[in-house]
Specification:
alpha+beta; Immunoglobulin-like; single chain; 8-stranded mixed sheet; 536 residues; 5-stranded mixed sheet
Length: 536
């Protein structure tokens, strides 16, 4: 979830994508070999010091885990440019070897599932990669506020959390019992991380350590640090803590601007269920980059403007009625942070559903017609350059179309089902069924098939696995209307609405020509009602 797209900037040509070559490094990052699947992470305890002048990190991460399959070796991950100082297990330093960004740790004895929970503490240091254009490329951002004080953030989605701390860097495994994040920063500055603030301690060496605790499972790339001279604004919405950490000069405007969070919470909780990380609270944290869906500490850098950097991605004017970053990144708390894809090849599960949450928000605030206008405005952002689903096992995302095309797929399914009571129950139940779970595309399709009582698989496949969208062909033969779908999926069928002289009718085309009983006269007006369907 580099949670944005800029009119195709994240896309590359299909011809280039078809020629992609993946390396051993890609497989080490994206694959699930035995050294990764043999253990289940229970908790991370991160304790680091950030030297802003040197742009460096020094500290440790304690990784607690259970053994699933007997092993003497496990794989963790830390970028090659970062130094491992030692790895300790039961007060003993372990041997390890590095291959690319993978760290293979050898134990002196066989670890078995019958053993109690294990832990290793990885001590490390170094200068993490600095992003050139966060959040589109992963890394740290070392900036300054208007007062000249340091302002530091990090965004690593897609690139990998192992860019800055040792971790099992895969979306297949989240720490079941959450994490603690302790960050020492120069006195006079504050660190804001995920979860609840547990207190700070002056270390008497020019640094103060800020301690945070996450109770819920959390994606590796969502663990974050934000360092600045922040001021804290606290609010509450129906028992949910709302906390905003903003630069001091922006305190008054933030109090007004973030009032938008309350109607957003009202909308999303009614459609998707209770905020999924209530124990950890909800935060917006002002960042020197545009934004990122860091769980319970959502990164906000839209400069208190409506739209996306003051622009309307739908080009309808409706996108300027809300702050895109607040709404989109908060939508990820349900889709991406709570419901998570196993492999980033399936990142449409994050981005398609979250861009759809924008349409949902518009409908909550402005009604159905404006929501459909906003949805159809997103069509202009679809490149249809390469499939939405990427290559599995090699840390490879699909097309940036996962945002608008994924949202338009869901909007299409709503109108295929043609029963809003059923649709909203399905969306609500989807969010709740897979709350705090890690899933894949097949799981999503299976759920919607079962709940709808329809075979939606060919529809999902056409939009997710191909670069073309369904084309409806129709003609009049002997005064009867004939029609068919032109698609890549051989068993594709999808109902759609038409109007003849203003009278609405539903037809059920397949990939072969169907002769209907609908009579059409030469002067009849036949109209395809495609507002709710993403088709040609």
């Amino acid at each position: 979830m580099k949670s944005f797209f800029l009119f195709g900037l994240l896309s590359i040509g299909w011809q280039l994508a078809a020629q992609e070559v993946f390396t051993r490094k890609d497989s080490l990052h994206g694959g699930m070999r035995q050294e990764r699947s043999c253990f289940d992470v229970q908790r991370y305890d991160l304790n680091i010091k950030v030297n802003i002048d040197e742009k460096s990190i020094k500290g440790s991460n304690t990784i607690s885990f259970k053994i699933v399959d007997s092993t003497k070796t496990i794989q963790l991950d830390l970028f090659e440019n970062m130094q491992i100082d030692s790895i300790v297990h039961r007060n003993t330093k372990l041997m390890y070897r590095r291959e690319c960004n993978a760290v293979f740790i050898d134990f002196s004895e066989m670890l078995t599932p019958e053993m109690s929970e294990q832990s290793v503490e990885v001590f490390y240091s170094g200068n993490p990669i600095i992003a050139k254009r966060a959040p589109w490329d992963g890394g740290f951002v070392f900036s300054k506020d208007e007062q000249g004080k340091p302002w530091v953030g990090v965004a690593v989605q897609g690139t990998g959390a192992s860019l800055w701390y040792p971790v099992k860097d895969t979306q297949t495994d989240e720490p079941d019992r959450g994490a603690s994040i302790k960050v020492a920063v120069p006195n006079g500055l504050m660190d804001v991380s995920n979860g609840r603030f547990m207190g700070s301690e002056d270390l008497k060496n020019g640094y103060t350590r800020w301690d945070w605790e996450v109770k819920n499972p959390i994606n590796n790339y969502n663990i974050t640090i934000n360092i600045a001279d922040y001021t804290h604004i606290h609010d509450n919405y129906k028992g949910l803590d709302l906390d905003y950490y903003v630069l001091r000069e922006n305190e008054e405007k933030a109090k007004i601007h973030f009032e938008e969070v309350k109607p957003m919470m009202e909308c999303f909780q009614s459609k998707f269920g209770e905020y999924p990380f209530k124990e950890d609270g909800y935060k917006l944290v002002e960042t020197p980059y545009l934004g990122m869906e860091h769980q319970s500490a959502v990164a906000y850098g839209n400069k208190y403007r409506k739209g996306y950097r003051g622009l309307d991605l739908s080009m309808t004017g409706i996108g300027l009625t809300f702050d895109y970053i607040t709404i989109h990144e908060s939508g990820h708390e349900w889709f991406g942070n709570s419901v998570t894809s196993k492999d980033i090849a399936d990142m449409w599960i994050h981005e398609g559903f979250t861009q759809y949450s924008e349409i949902v928000y518009v409908e909550c605030q402005l009604g159905y017609e404006k929501a459909m206008k906003y949805a159809n405005g997103l069509r202009k952002n679809v490149a249809n350059d390469r499939p939405i689903i990427g290559n599995y096992g090699v840390n490879n995302e699909g097309s940036g179309d996962m945002y608008p095309k994924g949202a338009l797929l869901l909007n299409t399914l709503r109108h295929v089902i043609n029963d809003d009571t059923k649709w909203w129950k399905m969306i609500y139940d989807y969010s709740q069924t897979f709350r705090h779970k890690i899933i894949d595309t097949e799981t999503v399709i299976g759920f919607f098939n079962q709940e709808s009582g329809m075979n939606l698989t060919p529809i999902f496949n056409q939009y997710l696995r191909h670069t073309t969208i369904p084309t409806l062909e129709y003609q009049v033969n002997k005064k009867c209307l004939e029609y068919r779908w032109k698609t890549n999926e051989p068993d594709f069928s999808m109902p759609i609405d038409i109007a003849i002289n203003g009278t609405k009718r539903r037809i059920y085309p397949e990939t072969t020509w169907t002769v209907s009983k609908i009579k059409v006269k030469p002067d009849d007006k036949v109209e395809i009602l495609k507002e709710g369907f993403y088709i040609k």
